[in-house]
């Protein structure tokens, strides 16, 4: 009888210990806190967004820990459905939405940077401007430079298909010049402005 009682007490203690461990593990910061994403742009052009993201994550984690320790409310999966719990869960969801908003902006920026965009280009793109990638700009510059052969000089008034192609490229870049294949002062000035 004594052995049976000891075995029952041991079983009850083991069940109690297991439940306590599971509860501890559930709310331990490694398992419960929202973790910041590693796939975000920490060099975002607006550093306030980066700061706000980390601040929002800390606020979210602090709120969840406070509600659990002070009110014993699990904001991720509440046991009760009373008005106070619903309000707290709603507040948690608002904080989580704020974190996700900042995270989405920073992830999108990281993706654009991986594609070759700079901070200035990302800013312009977010403002609705059309921005070429760095590779397109470099390709255009290389094409223009490859067209110029240092051994041959172009003189004012000269006509050629080469000059015609340069004029087409300059017009495509926004310069207001005639595309007639004749090397005039206006074409020369546009080339000098482009080289600057």
Written description of the protein model:
The protein is mainly α and 196 residues long. The chain has two domains: 31-126; 134-195, no CATH class. 67% of the residues lie in helices and 0% in strands. α3 runs antiparallel to α4 (83-114). The longest helix is centred in the middle third of the chain and has 32 residues, at 83-114. The mean pLDDT is 84.
List the topology elements:
Elements lengths: L1 H26 L1 H4 L14 H25 L11 H32 L4 H8 L7 H14 L13 H12 L12 H11 L1
Helix pairs in contact: 3-4
Short account of what is shown:
The protein has 196 residues and is mostly helical. It has helices at 2-27, 29-32, 47-71, 83-114, 119-126, 134-147, 161-172, 185-195.
The topology string of helices and strands comes to HHHHHHHH
Class computed from helices, strands and strand pairing = mainly alpha
- The helix fraction, in percent, is 55-70%
Strand content: under 5%
> Average pLDDT, to the nearest integer?
84
**Bulk shape:** rod-shaped
Tally of DSSP β-strands: 0
Number of separate helices: 8
Number of domains: 2
Q: What value does the Rg take, in angstroms?
A: 32 Å
Key structural traits:
single chain, 196 residues, mainly alpha, 2 domains
